[in-house]
Design a protein that fits this description.
The protein is of the alpha/beta class. It contains 18 helices and 12 strands.
Length: about 400
């Protein structure tokens, strides 16, 4: 017997103009579970479930995978989580448009070549195949960028130091007119976004990242698009494609600990710096954000927010030892700060953006996790920060 306000699987599917088989599949893969199941196994859905189904169908139309959708529907009130994910998809669509324009040109050029010379440029066709297969790579790149933005957002909103991180970094750079500057691993270029008004007119700045997609996104930004002070490059910083003694300043903001061969990167930075040029390399220490780790491990001791502690690779405790092989006058400067967070949502978003195994243990129990964090944050959560920079002089 049907309960009042509930729809059978058939009625539910008909309302959405989809098949019953699709409804059952969404149940099977844990994307949309029925609100009520009878002892005989009949499944019934509510109007709330229908809203969720509409959300799923929209995201599917926009190109999200079912795995993406499972994460995006973890809670009805997580609009910031949803907004970040939609922004990721918007960037992917922009890149896809650019790719299709390049594909159209390549096809046109090849067709013209065949008609005029009865020949085919096979290398160009192989490049065409490469371009059409870039989507998964771009998605990974942008997902990483989106995750970084989520973590930056927590610091921007709740830092107690009135001088933000990026204005402080800029101040340490002591940029003067005529300088040539390279930033490796520039990410979303926020260092320059926040300090563009302070930048001298006569400087030459290369913004670089290993991700071609992220570099294209920065280049599209109207702030940089027509600013002749900026140029852009994509490369692996283990092989920096510039001549010796090219730059007065190299900036590596929270990126050396990601490098596979840190020694090689340090040697390359030293090589492209002019004699007595400056490296600014930011990182953090072992106490940084430890309250976040404590929080998630109280919820589930199996959770790790990173596959490894990055500060153990290149951090406050060992960074000088790494740099002293190629640099002189290595100095550590601490950015004095802490976070005081009053709401649970930004903390949860930060946790879900980390590179560890947290989603494996949180997403299936998201509502329970939300309640747990809310209970722990009846009072504002104070979070330790131990971030800063090494300043070193090239030999």
């Amino acid at each position: 017997m049907t309960k009042e306000g509930y729809y059978s699987s058939g009625q539910f599917a008909k309302m959405a103009h989809i098949s019953v088989r699709t409804v059952r599949y969404y149940d099977k893969v844990n994307i949309l579970k029925p609100s009520y199941v009878t002892e005989s196994g009949a499944r019934f859905y509510t109007d709330t479930d229908f809203v969720r189904l509409q959300q799923i169908m929209l995201l599917k139309y926009l190109g999200f995978s079912l795995d993406d959708i499972r994460e995006l529907t973890v809670g009805e009130t997580d609009y910031q989580f949803m907004a970040n994910s939609l922004e990721l998809q918007r960037k992917l669509i922009q890149d896809k448009i650019e790719q299709l324009q390049m594909v159209e040109k390549a096809i046109g050029d090849t067709t013209k070549e065949i008609r005029e010379n009865r020949d085919v440029d096979w290398s160009q066709m192989l490049e065409l195949i490469h371009m059409t297969g870039m989507e998964n790579t771009l998605k990974t790149q942008y997902q990483n960028s989106t995750n970084i933005s989520a973590r930056i957002q927590l610091h921007s909103l709740y830092s107690q130091n009135e001088q933000g991180w990026f204005p402080w970094i800029y101040e340490q750079c002591e940029i003067k007119s005529g300088m040539k500057i390279l930033e490796i691993g520039c990410g979303n270029a926020r260092l320059w976004n926040e300090n563009i008004a302070r930048l001298p007119e006569n400087v030459d700045i290369v913004l670089s990242d290993i991700s071609e997609g992220i570099v294209r996104e920065i280049r599209r930004d109207s702030l940089f698009h027509e600013d002749k002070r900026f140029s852009f490059a994509s490369f692996d910083c283990q092989e920096i494609p510039y001549e010796e003694d090219s730059f007065d300043l190299v900036i590596a903001n929270h990126m050396l600990f990601y490098c596979e061969d840190i020694n090689q990167v340090i040697r390359e930075i030293n090589r492209v710096l002019k004699p007595e040029g400056t490296l600014i390399a930011s990182t953090y220490g072992e106490k940084h954000m430890h309250e976040i780790t404590d929080l998630v491990q109280q919820f589930d001791s199996r959770i790790t927010l990173a596959a490894e502690n990055l500060y153990e690779r290149f951090g406050r405790e060992n960074g000088a030892a790494w740099l002293e092989s190629c640099f002189e006058n290595v100095e550590w400067r601490l950015y004095e700060d802490s976070l005081v967070v009053e709401k649970p949502e930004p903390v949860m978003e930060y946790i879900l953006s980390c590179h560890g195994n947290q989603n494996q243990y949180i997403l299936e129990r998201y509502n329970k996790f939300r309640s747990f964090v809310s209970g722990k944050m009846r009072k504002p959560l104070r979070i330790t920060k131990e971030a800063g920079i090494f300043i070193a002089t090239a030999r």
